[in-house]
Amino acid sequence: MGSGHKADKASLASSHTHSFSHQHHPSPPASKEVWKKGGRMFSILLAVHLALLACTLVSSGAFEKIAVHDYDVFFLLTVMMLIVIVWIIFYLVSTSRSPDAILCKDSHAGPVWLRGGLILFAIFSLVMDVFKIGYYSSFYSCLSAIKIIYPIVQAIFVIVQTYFLWISAKDCVHAHLNVTRCGLMLTLTTNLAVWMSAVTDESVHKAHSKLKKNVTEEIFKWLMKAGMRSGSTEECNCNSQICQIFKNGYFWLYPFNIEYSLFASAMVYVMWKNVGRFIDHHSHHIHRLKFRLFRRTFFVGIVLGLIILVSGLGVLIVYEVRVNSSHEPSKKNEALTMYYIFNIVCLGLMSLVCIGGSVIYRFDKRDMDRHKNPTRTLDVALLMGAALGQYAISYYSIVAIVASTPRDTISALNLTYALLMIAQHTFQNIFIIEGLHRQPPKEDHKRDLRQKDPYGLTFVNVNAVSLRVPDSGSTVTPSPLPSIEAIHPSELVQSLAGPKKMNWRRKFLREISMFLLLSNIILWIMPAFGARPQFDNDKELNFYGDSMWPAIVDICLPFGIFYRMHAVASLLEVYIMS
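The line above is the sequence of OTOP2 protein; the predicted structure tokens follow.
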């Protein structure tokens, strides 16, 4: 009787365990799509054709001899943004009404710091649109109406898209799959087209203010004539003080609008990858780590980073004053020397710190995260791709300096700066990519298990949490509770003992991440707001010519600026995961 009763209890426990295991490990439903790659291919082809059309118009509009004006570009961009606004409204309404439209969410997509950065850039983009509206309204009587309509539509587009990405960045959509893919690709292409237009406009403005020669002067004349009904440049001169404020204001805010377009494009691409995706929640770990800026740190990285940041701002102000306000060659050379010395020191420290961080990773016992993660894949691709822009500028500078004569102090500093720029990008990419592929610390996972309180008790008798051995000697495992993973007694004892102190490896990695984050901020600010020695140093300009070298810088420099801002977001994630 006793043995039969025990056998019944064991079989009942095993059946409960079996049922719980089935409830706790659901298999992902089969996809309803017959050919998933076909839908993706169609949306990619749509994006490629639209991107080529926009690129053709933007590049053609940059030259006076080609019969394409800037208001033609504005008309195309306005139409694209209006279509995207209509599609976003359709998406929000359709997904809110259909409960089965979004079956799961990607926890890695659209982290809060990325969305926060998007909102910050969106605010400055809206201010830029206000300045642009005020500037064009100063002489609206001789301008095409599209030049005033365009910034108004762009402001509405920024507001609608920012709201859309804030609430929908994590969605894995399972309704209107092909329409959603095409809509997301249209949104991505629109952001890239706006980015190309902003980069072209800013580059022409910077080139005119720096060089004022040959092709650049012609481009400036075209910018003043394009879109004017009377065709007279004198009638539309910006002579009033308020007009000059609007003009200078929106040019200074262009870097924020450029970064906004690229951030939005990256988030939209991740959403496109997640269309029709089913996430296995057991292989897709969700790490809810808290951001503690002033805890568990020695403050060394923050202090050194703030010193670099403040010093860089001072160097930027002095550089702008001496280069732009003074025509004396001696002051210009002093400003270039100061700029190069600061960057050499900063890049040298960053390279050494990145090498140290990579060495520390060799002693890190955390496992590598090998699960599928579209967001991380995109981060790595953007880091590697955007670095190519600065690599190109550096190699062009090295060739020009080595092959030309005479070799003075500024040439030696420029050569050192170019070599360190290549080294710093390489070492920083290695450090960031390795940090993004690391698992979070085990202490946080064990602390989460302790907070779940799986036994429903405030105080747990550790001796009671053990396996009972029946008289027959067979081991009977108690049936697991739903949504509770099996916990080894030794792990339970460690988790109940409280969180361990952070080891030295994690502390050093946090210091390194914070120092690199602040250093990348100043290295983004300096070229984004006018400190561009590529136009002020005559070595490359004389070697490649007035036409080739500005074109190289205008094409490659925006990628280098974007690299710095994307590195800031990636380093923040590495800091939190350390």
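Note on the example: Residues 292-441+503-577 form one domain. Residues 386 and 535 are 21 Å apart (CA to CA).
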